[in-house]
TrEMBL record:
Organism (species): Polyangium mundeleinium
Domain Aldehyde dehydrogenase: 21-484
Active-site residues per Swiss-Prot or TrEMBL entry: E260
Protein's name according to its UniProt entry: Aldehyde dehydrogenase family protein
Keywords in alphabetical order: Oxidoreductase
Keyword Oxidoreductase carried by entry: yes
Source organism, top-level taxon: Bacteria
Amino acid sequence: MSPLLAQGPSDLLEGRWVPLPGDAIASRNPTRPAEIVWQGSPDPAHADEAVAAARRALPAWASLPAERRFAALRRFRDLCKARAAEMARLITDETGKALWDARAEADLLAAKVDITLDASEHGGLRRVSGFEIPLSASRAGRTWFRPHGVMVVLGPFNFPAHLPNGHIIPALALGNTVVFKPSDKAPAVGQTLAAWLAEALDAEGAPPGVVNLVHGGASVASRLVANADIDGVLFTGSWPVGRRILEASLDWPGRVLALEMGGNAPSVVLPDADLRQAAIEVARSAFVSTGQRCTCTRRLVVHGAVAERFIRTIVEMASKLRVGDPLADPQPFMGPIISAEARAAVFAAQERFAAGGAEIRLAARALESPSGGHFLSPGVVRVDRFTRSEDGPGADVEVFGPLLRYVVVDSVDEAIAQANATRFGLAASIFTKDAGTIERFLAEVRAGCVNVNTGTAGASSKLPFGGIGLSGNHRPAGAFSLDYCAYPVAGMIESGATAPLPIGMTFEESWLE
């Protein structure tokens, strides 16, 4: 068990840490799979207890002055800053993410608080602060915002701290209470995140139950979503799971669903591009975090005029990436993939594409490790064309690992068509110097994050973040995350006594005597 855990495997229910003895779920270090980071047996009944606790805490938390809530979040920010190295090491141990990559994630925790609480002209708080306008000489129109209530946050393994934190901080800021279920592949990181939040909340006198933690797999997540007493589900994960959340919420149309799901991101490289810039950014975006980001470049669309030398460069770069122990010195570009099953899935996809006629330019393969780690090398595969079908070498499937497919095109029209040959719509990028082509790409490519002369992977928290199609339901995260954490209420405030009599109505003062 990781020595970085402040307490043994536990759920957090209304301020109490409840131990979870057993071994039904175990997270193992992907670099050294014999090393158990977290192990316990979840209790499904805790899901209902956590929701009830969050419901009890809601009135007191929501009624606190905003600055009291903000003070607790700023205290959490300070804890994250002081303990960033500790969180980075835990992320590395549990996910296999290279230490530099894990530290970048850990640093985002504190930054999220500052971005969320920014009240400047471009800050999210201004959009949910309400306003008042005159409607007549004696009547004013007013709008204000209320928290939804109890929010369930379902976290992923690839950014086990940053992505759930991105939902939790704005939810708490606007007066919601939270039940957090981390990924069963990264429970130690999730438990630590919840512990730091609880510490900060307790220090500021928040009621117990504002943040609750429940461990478990799909059955626990399903039980949380099925609970009639929740008001929102803030989810990061795959489309199949997001679909089940939608189906489970059909009887609660007022429930807010923020679904951040997968991607099949394209990058387009045209002949006038700075090919050095394009090659570095494409390789980085395709293989960073061992290809385990939803914004990773999965599909490369390259113009025939530069295709051969550009692809040759990508293959050379991919074959020379440093892959190894995330804690090694010098640090590797990427560590192991999350599990043996995830590695096998990458190889199975590669074999499936090859069987369908794809050309393997660089084969992804298992890398030997004395510790038995789940290491693999990047792969590059040529296909004839991308389609929205789930079949064939150009299939519209998200391979969650370091496997890049590419097509060669002869025109901008064909490049845009191939970029849009997907049901997903999270990220896309183009490399060109032509202003007209750039404007056309920005207008026509269907994605929530569209970049120019930079890769698809990596996003600024100062901007909105989210996808369309199978990538999400238009709930903007990032800088717009506050927008789905409260709902507007409209009211008309009358200060006069001049209510007009409608046609056909009679009133006499004597009736009130």
